[in-house]
């Protein structure tokens, strides 16, 4: 019997809500995960929680061992991963305090270990639709039921970090029509696909990247602002994630579980 069926990779503060919680260390072929994994239950579902940056936030975005984190979840039996994340807005209509249930991503990172297949086995997995449609539908329904301000779709551009964008970069991203900016969605989403796990992103908007376009009074984002807004909205994010866990159907009705079929060369 697997240890868990649903995994949550996110910020600290969630594991305290797990019933019957216990901690386990997981060694993977890729090293240790960001921290110990906390196992417990939510609404009768077996859940594994892992703080993405470590419990002391000791791993900046570019230094996270994404492969070990996803591999640890896989070893524990997880088939669905929920990846909540703080994120910035690139568009005026996507406001701080709102959620975006992303359906697309754009990778602007560099140098990250982003595959389980370094050879001699070669796999070309499809990432045309990086987020699980079944989990996205569940998240949309739960957000609506809870009355939470949630955009049902959106594109997240993933930057290397840990620095924030220049004004020119942010203007470029806005002009492309992308809604969300973040530092951790890649390669986390890709690795989950390679592991044939369903993956859901729920982005909590904490700021406007470099201010609202055309507003001379707008100031660029700061780490202090991100943390303050994230903490202020954490209870709503917890409600949403707990609601999604409880509502996830027992049967997977998506293609995530067969992502490697026909992908070998």
How would you describe this structure to a colleague?
The protein has 265 residues and is an alpha/beta fold. It has a single domain (6-258), classed as Nucleoside phosphorylase domain (Rossmann fold, 3-Layer(aba) Sandwich), CATH 3.40.50.1580. Helix content is 26%, strand content 25%. The protein has five helices and 13 strands. It has helices spanning 66-75, 133-146, 167-175, 185-194, 223-247; strands spanning 6-10, 19-24, 27-28, 31-32, 37-42, 45-51, 80-89, 99-100, 104-108, 150-151, 155-159, 180-182, 198-208. Strands 1, 2, 5, 6, 7, 8, 9, 10, 11, 12 and 13 form an eleven-stranded mixed beta sheet that branches. Strands 3-4 form a two-stranded antiparallel ribbon. The two termini are 33 Å apart. The relative contact order is 0.20.
Q: State the separation between the terminal residues, measured CA to CA.
A: 33 Å
Task: Please give the domain count.
Answer: 1
The coarse overall form would be globular
What is the CATH H-level superfamily? Nucleoside phosphorylase domain
Which range best describes the helical content: under 10%, 10-25%, 25-40%, 40-55%, 55-70% or over 70%?
25-40%
How much β-strand is present in the residues? 15-25%
**Rg calculated over all Cα atoms:** 18 Å
Mean pLDDT: 92
The succession of helices and strands, N to C, reads EEEEEEHEEEHEEHEHEH
CATH third-level topology: Rossmann fold
């Amino acid at each position: 019997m697997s240890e868990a069926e649903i995994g949550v990779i996110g910020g600290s503060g969630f594991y305290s809500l797990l019933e019957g919680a216990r901690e386990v260390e997981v060694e993977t072929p890729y090293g240790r995960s960001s921290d110990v994994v906390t196992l417990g239950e939510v609404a009768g579902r077996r859940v594994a929680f892992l703080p993405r940056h470590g419990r002391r936030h000791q791993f900046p975005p570019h230094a996270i061992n994404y492969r070990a984190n996803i591999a640890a979840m896989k070893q524990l039996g997880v088939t669905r991963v929920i990846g909540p994340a703080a994120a910035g807005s690139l568009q005026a209509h996507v406001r701080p305090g709102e959620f975006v249930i992303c359906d697309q991503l754009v990778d602007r990172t560099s140098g990250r270990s982003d595959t389980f297949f370094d050879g001699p086995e070669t796999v070309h997995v499809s990432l045309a639709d990086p987020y699980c449609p079944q989990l996205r539908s569940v998240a949309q329904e739960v957000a609506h039921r809870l009355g939470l301000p949630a955009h049902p779709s959106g594109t997240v551009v993933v930057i290397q970090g840990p620095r924030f964008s220049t004004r020119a970069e942010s203007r470029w991203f806005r002009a492309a029509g992308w809604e969300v900016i973040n530092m951790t969605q890649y390669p986390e989403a890709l690795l989950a696909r390679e592991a044939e796990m369903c993956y859901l992103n729920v982005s909590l908007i904490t700021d406007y990247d470099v201010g609202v376009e055309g507003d001379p009074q707008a100031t660029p984002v700061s780490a202090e602002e991100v943390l303050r807004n994230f903490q202020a909205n954490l209870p709503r994010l917890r409600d949403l994630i707990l609601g999604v866990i409880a509502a996830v159907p027992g049967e997977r009705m998506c293609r995530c579980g067969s992502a490697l079929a026909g992908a070998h060369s």
